[in-house]
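Student: Send me a single protein entry containing the residue sequence and its fold in token form, directly below this note:

Tutor:
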Amino acid sequence: MTLQDRIDELVAQHGSLRAVARVTEIDVGYLSRLRAYANVNPGRDKLRRLGLRRVVAYELLKTPNAAITGAGTASGG
């Protein structure tokens, strides 16, 4: 779920972005920026108020960068 999805869900539940701001005690302008995917990195408290938690995942590249892996170099890594 994205931040936008969650905010949209809360807007549908509460009727407006201003209502969500009141319920979550988060500034409506800040919610608007989150909803618009502005370069905003909400803290743990704001995420909790939205009923979310941050989950980070990493994946290996399908074609690793030789400079990083050492593949194809004389040292071999």
User: Anything to note?
Assistant: The mean pLDDT is 87. The chain has one domain: 1-72. The helical segments are 3-14, 17-24, 28-35, 44-49, 66-69.
